[in-house]
Amino acid sequence: AKADGRGSCRVFEPAMGVQALERRELEFDLRQALLNDEFELHYQPIYNLAEQRFTVCEALVRWRHPRRGLLGPGDFISVAEEMGLIVDIGKLVLKRACLECALWPEDVSVAVNISPLQFRRGDIVTSVAEALEGAALRPSRLELELTESVLLQDVAFTSLTMKLLHMRQVAISLDDFGTGYSSLSYMNELPLSKVKIDRSFLAGIEKANKAMLMLRGLTRLSAELGLSVVIEGVETETQLELITAATQVQMVQGYLFSRPLPGEEVRKILRDEREE
Ligand code: C2E
Ligand code: CA
Ligand code: CA
Ligand code: CA
């Protein structure tokens, strides 16, 4: 509330609408959430078509809100980013994800989403090293997912940081590929291992040939740059058939294979898969 200039304070200022109040409450709750340990991770297995099993699981943060139930990242990540809290949340996510991955079969890696702020202001190289050490995890079992927007800001810093991570054997994927301002020239220079093609590219492939051409083009370009490719958001058998008929893609992620699951369920799936 703003002071009105005569020493009193108007708490319910007309200008402060419902939205502003909700936003304040969310900010307050987010700070509490870190203190009260309310964040948890779910893991979505990514299917390797060549090996016919799950070889990576992506960590996806959830918030067990005391009143509102289980919230997805869409409900809070952007506010956490604006508040700067994403840096601490991100460190926690890295730590937890590495501890969880240490419980999986040796040939399965974990992929962790890194927000732009965490990448630039979060001592990312140090927090990655600490998370790996804390879990005694081989660095090659950790992948970081960065979006295109990260690559475009402060190219010198980005490039150096990525090289430091790469030297430590931590792989970097380009997330949501095709949705941002693609910088194809950088893609060649930065130490990227993988691109994840955004699920929006699957949208029309059953009906429109153009959509299929786009998907095929992106996949081919990535492969020619020496990158491995994941197609995100595969929901139907038809989509999978079209993808495998038209591309050489090796990895697919989506509800068709598995939804994001709590750690104990993922552990069981990975173990069962290797015992058959
Ligand atoms: P993303 O990195 O693109 O993650 C994939 C999102 O697509 C996840 O949503 C996942 O549940 C969803 N998804 C997977 N398969 C399918 C499918 O077949 N169909 C559909 N419709 N959706 C599918 P989620 O968990 O809600 O996460 C949303 C976004 O929030 C993520 O998008 C990522 O950008 C961000 N995020 C999640 N966890 C973290 C985190 O720990 N740190 C940061 N910085 N961002 C995170
Ligand atoms: Ca991701
Ligand atoms: Ca993505
Ligand atoms: Ca996405």
UniProtKB/TrEMBL annotation:
Protein origin, superkingdom: Bacteria
Domain EAL residues, every copy: 23-274
UniProt protein name: EAL domain-containing protein
Location of this fragment in the whole protein: 482 to 757 of 768
